[in-house]
Design a protein that fits this description.
There is one protein chain. By secondary structure, the protein is α/β, with parallel strands linked by helices. It is globular and about 50 Å long. The relative contact order is 0.12. The N and C termini lie far apart (63 Å). It has a 9-stranded mixed beta sheet with strand order 8-7-6-5-4-3-2-1-9. Helix content is 49%, strand content 16%. Bound molecules: ligand C2E and magnesium ion (3 copies). This is PAS domain S-box-containing protein/diguanylate cyclase (GGDEF)-like protein.
């Protein structure tokens, strides 16, 4: 077909590129409107101690009513938000919803921390940091109950302003967790310098536990380094009892994954936590 067009290979590939570019543009437009209309929501996935107590949860943004009424995965629309300037209002929206959840639980006498994912570029923006601190202060939530999940890409260019912004949040009491640990640029020297409290072992290492020799060694090393640096460790993507047993036996602090809990709409999560509290399981 390319030859029929008389444009060689270029014409053969171009329609696909156009489709991807068109999808991006339409997602960006729809996302802008969805943010304005407050159509994004949050789901929460519980994090458990090895004794099956809920110790907190991860907040995951949801866009259930995307273009044509079809849900869009954050894996697809977060990159669009990041390259279009929408990540800032999106993050503040997610954060305010997360703070409302923590507040509702506090009103029921339950103190549980929530983790919120924060894209790397946000730490270059002083006004975003101001916005975060203002939202936390207005909410009355103890800053310690808010954990910001960041990734190793933040450490590639540690400009002074990035470090200063992280330090402001850390001084205010917010916690930092290093998400997808082991998949990116791992400069161990940064682990202590970056005000981290927690590491999250990436799902790709958890996947082949406990059978794969290499992944066993990697996970044990991560747990050992974390212990020596006094960092808490969360394993993500735990899907089998054998994985949970291995991680618990080697001192992993918290487990997160479909085996224990699938992300649930915020209201549903709050109800289930309150119920567990009444049964003294939180
Ligand atoms: P992440 O932060 O690593 O989040 C974990 C992802 O793994 C979530 O997918 C979660 O639903 C999924 N997951 C949890 N347990 C299991 C399991 O046992 N098996 C499998 N196969 N998957 C599991 P989700 O919600 O689609 O989010 C994907 C990514 O999108 C997140 O990865 C995060 O990088 C990003 N993201 C989500 N919400 C936000 C947000 O509010 N802001 C930013 N900046 N990024 C977000
Ligand atoms: Mg995360
Ligand atoms: Mg993760
Ligand atoms: Mg991940």
């Amino acid at each position: 077909r390319a030859k029929q067009n008389g444009k060689g290979g270029y014409a053969f590939f171009k329609p696909e590129l156009d489709a991807a570019a068109r999808r991006r543009v339409s997602l960006e437009e729809a996302l802008r409107i969805a943010i304005l209309r407050d159509e994004l929501s949050i789901a929460i996935q519980s994090q458990y101690s090895p004794l099956s107590q809920i110790k907190g949860g991860e907040v995951l943004v949801r866009w259930l009513n995307g273009p044509d009424g079809v849900p869009v995965s954050p894996a697809e629309f977060i990159p669009v938000a990041e390259t279009s300037g929408l990540i800032k209002p999106l993050t503040l929206l997610v954060l305010s919803k997360a703070l409302a959840v923590v507040t509702e639980l506090m009103d029921a006498g339950i103190l549980l921390p929530l983790s919120v994912n924060f894209s790397t570029d946000l730490f270059r923006d002083v006004t975003l940091i101001d916005g975060v601190l203002a939202l936390v202060a207005e909410s009355g939530v103890p800053p310690e109950l808010l954990v910001l999940e960041i990734t190793e890409s933040l450490f590639i260019d540690t400009q002074a302003d990035v470090l200063a912004n992280m330090e402001r949040l850390s001084t205010a009491g917010l916690k930092f967790s290093l998400d997808d640990f082991g998949t990116g640029y791992s400069n161990l020297a940064y682990l202590k310098r970056m005000h981290l409290s927690e590491l999250k072992i990436d799902k790709s290492f958890v996947d082949h536990l406990p059978h794969d020799d290499d992944n066993r060694a990697i996970v044990r090393s991560i747990l050992s380094i974390a212990r020596q640096l006094r960092l808490r460790v969360v394993a993500e993507g735990v899907e089998t009892a054998a994985q949970a047993d291995f991680l618990s036996a080697h001192g992993c602090d918290l487990l997160q994954g479909y085996l224990l809990h699938k992300p649930a709409p915020a209201a549903e999560w709050v109800s289930s936590v309150k119920l567990l509290k009444s049964e003294k399981k939180v």
